[in-house]
Write a structure and sequence with these properties.
The protein is α/β, with parallel strands linked by helices and 137 residues long. The chain has helices spanning 3-16, 24-28, 36-45, 61-68, 80-90; strands spanning 51-55, 72-77, 100-102, 113-119, 124-133.
Length: 137
Amino acid sequence: MKDSKIAEETKAHYNDFPFDYLTPEDERNIEQIQPGAFIRFADAYLKPGMRVAEIGCGGGRGTLFMVRRGVNLLAADISRGSLQIARRRAAGRGRGRGPLARGHGRIAGGYRHFEVAGDGVHQNFCVLAFGVHLAGD
């Protein structure tokens, strides 16, 4: 099976079955449901106003958490349905800006440089010592 066919089938699956597992209580207490390692990373490194790229944001568990912490966030996911859920969760919920993008290389909010990037699925984030610039800069 070609990689593009696998990617299309994966995208179709997550569009049909977007992640929506958080309850309203979870949303109110978003910090309590984050993995401990991610909380420690956020406490040590995420500062209000930082530009963060969250790749694979799903339904927005980490997205909502980081927006509430005041980061300027680009959250991306292959699933349009999951992004709609994440947008709804993050809208007006924090001090940071939370542009959300879908697709391959499309960036919302004009962000082209990030100080922190990570995997929204497993909450594995890292500080980019020299930042990262997207192609075209």
